[in-house]
Amino acid sequence: MSTRSQAMLMLAGLLCAQGCGGDTGGQAPLPDHGTVKSPDLGQVSPDGGGGPPLPLPPPPDGMATGTATCGAVLGCLQEKQCKPGDATCANACLATGTAAAQQTFGALSSCTEKAMASACASCKTSPQTEACVSCLETSCQSSYTACGLTQTCAQAADCAMKCGPNDKTCAGACMSKATPTAGLRLMNLQTCMQSSLSGSCKASCSDPMSVSCQSCVKPACASQAQACGLTPK
Question: Which domain holds residue 133?
Fold first, then answer.
């Protein structure tokens, strides 16, 4: 089992400690920790995976349309890790969206570009920070809402937990509904768990379902879990 998959096995423990309604895989709860089961959310990308949408070049006239929502178009950009100015990559994702989705995403991209040129200038050098995504959410809240990015970190995690093992399409659909701040916080939690599983907790985690593994990893990532709303403050 990959370290990334092991990390996502633990998210449900944090969720169910709060009282989640998803499948817990029949595992008995651990004291103060809960049970474990959750799908892989995929790689954390430098320009996606919860960060702000990249400013995009204008789409060409007569662009093809598909059936994807605005949020799904954003998810495509993050999954493909499209870089600023990469029109080929960006347009391939935009073409999957409906005409309405393309228009809504265009408005969102325009808003974030303007914000990054003024109030959110720090995003140019530090896009994967909470300061950046929080600034963009404040500046472009109505555009994010119109794009369907409204779920909290805990809501996105609960949604992804119900996906099948390694079903990245399902997990991606859950992530495409999260606000930028929510997506970043969930990815920060995943990154912390991955780091712990391959580092300080490796000796305790030959079995990621074991009490010894959970007892090591969960406290190590307590601040990230709390930021995601998965543990009591």
Answer: 70-146
